[in-house]
Amino acid sequence: MTALAKIVHTNPEIEAEPDLTDGFHLVIDALKLNGIETIYGVPGIPITDLGRMAQAEGMRVISFRHEQHAGNAAAIAGFLTKKPGICLTVSAPGFLNGLTALANATTNCFPMILISGSSEREIVDLQQGDYEEMDQLAIAKPLCKAAFRVLHAADIGIGVARAIRAACSGRPGGVYLDLPAKLFSQVMDAEAGRNSLVKVIDPAPAQRPAPEAIARALEVLKSARRPLIVLGKGAAYAQADDAIRALVETSGIPYVPMSMAKGLLPDTHPLSAGAARSTALKDSDVVLLIGARLNWLLSHGKGKSWGEPGSTKFIQIDIEPREMDSNVEIVAPVVGDIGSCVQALLDGMGQGWQQAPSDWIETLKAKRDANIAKMAPKLMSNASPMTFHAALGALRTIVKERPDAILVNEGANTLDLARGIIDMYQPRKRLDVGTWGIMGIGMGFAVAAAVETGKPVLCVEGDSAFGFSGMEVETICRYGLPVCIVVFNNNGIYRGTDTDPTGRDPATTVFVPDSRYDRMMEAFGGTGYHVTNPDELTRAVNEAMNSGRPALINAVIDPAAGSESGNIGSLNPQSGIKKKK
Known about the structure:
581 residues, alpha/beta, Rossmann fold, six-stranded parallel sheet, 22 helices, globular
């Protein structure tokens, strides 16, 4: 029985009257009709009963301690499933908390819908001071892909359908759905309500590339002496794994994966140039971008990370035509969905494709092997306290032994070094801060990864990054999720050795020395570990992950081990004024 049949008249005298439904049940049934099974959110006015009813109707409702983390969970759920993740919040402040995650989802092209209760339009529009009064729709519009408001129960089906299609179609992104409080209690005929619901058919239809675009791209590839493929997280989202692997191996072109594309092909694949990234980017003459944008993460396709201006030709696959030529000329734009475009390139190559020149492959292989050999001693140290390299070396082995586990990673040094040190072996197993490089995604991503996949999660956090969402360890414990958190604790942001020149306060980048984050997990019934060397770290992680229960490992890192902003310290402006002595 659906929720639509729940509101009935039981008085015999009015038994002939039609069954009724209301806004609460219509929202739930609209989501369920479209295959939405999980809601992430924080309960409160005016959506508390919506969460209760959704749970009663069989949906999974995961309640967080803060809306931003619920939103991050919904966003990464969208990335993992290709269905829009749903975040449910209260009005005004709760909406604003969720909006950060919605904007981040839009920037990263994750399908997500933020559903927020709101104040009544009549009072908001006259600014008469309603409870948590805010024109939420107007605020959301500039920060997401689309925004809709539903005022009448009969329009809920259309509103949910439009939100789903907007979130998934074309380049995916975040959508805001505004539901004023009095919408939920609106009553209508149950049969009419049922007929008003919409099942979205093919929300992300294939967009096949033009044949001439494929022919142009293949001609450019044929001319290359030093070709390179760059795989972005869009390629991972597309779930065209077999076709992408076939393209790499048929063409013989080496590839560099962006961080969330790691594992599309194993990082140990013979054509992986991830460990020779700098050489691969700088010396390539033709670059095929698959689901990757030439933004700051790729130095905008120019500058010292690349060769001489104009020496590199770019082919770009993207579903959004306006992405082309955003920073440099794209000589062969291929517009369409990644699966269709990659398959078209494969079909065009046929059986007799000339693979990439062997001297280019050997050059990258030599550089990769040299870099790996240079890094190896740093990863093998068992000193106490640990360096970042030594701790990550231990985790690298664990991930190799557990390729099915999902790695969530954020921080400064913890993030930047892990990208290069920890190899991935399967697609969509590495989740991190993405395009904006923001911190605070860790616990939300970890919760959703466990809920959506049922796989064990290893969440590797810098101590600063953990502070943004650490209270959600209670959420992890409450739901008994198989999440093992490792906090790299070096007593501060970047490092824990800075001082206040005045001697008055702690330095701006320093935390309480020798904090015991493991005891936070113990406070909520999870298991805590305190480790000081890689051997202890290895034993603790394996024990925690074998248990399948919530755990947090406080990993003591040398306070002096970190560096400013990890690998992007150059983005921090330096003062142009020298202080007089």
